[in-house]
Amino acid sequence: xxxxxxxxxxxxxxxxxxxxxxxxxxxxxxxxxxxxxxxxxxxxxxxxxxxxxxxxxxxxxxxxxxxxxxxxxxxxxxxxxxxxxxxxxxxxxxxxxxxxxxxxxxxxxxxxxxxxxxxxxxxxxxxxxxxxxxxxxxxxxxxxxxxxx
Length: 149
Prior knowledge:
The protein is of the alpha+beta class. The chain has one domain: endopeptidase fold (from Nostoc punctiforme) (Alpha-Beta Complex). It contains 3 helices and 8 strands. A 6-stranded antiparallel β-sheet has the order 3-8-4-5-6-7. Residues 1-20 form the signal peptide. Keywords: Hydrolase, Protease, Signal, Thiol protease.
């Protein structure tokens, strides 16, 4: 009888951990998808240094705003996002944050959101909110890493 109880308990614990992990993945997929959707809805919004609203965004303002609308609070600057949130990843998934710096040894000064298919969405100082390729000749050499929130 005790063996059956222990077996049933082990099965229950195992299944609950599987469902909990699945729920966390589903939640993450939701807010990544939602954040991308919000960012895409702001395509063409002009660049504004310090901007955090649809009247004008800077790079971290767009990311903070988009994730905020999806229910995730992020810090204000690219550097604070890089140093305090998420975990580093090598293989990009939609919704991951991509960080850029003037050189590999300096702190991040720019952030974009990976949207899949080799593309990222960001607030560009020259073009406003745009979608561009991660292989972009200007940004690729400045890339210092990605984080998953």
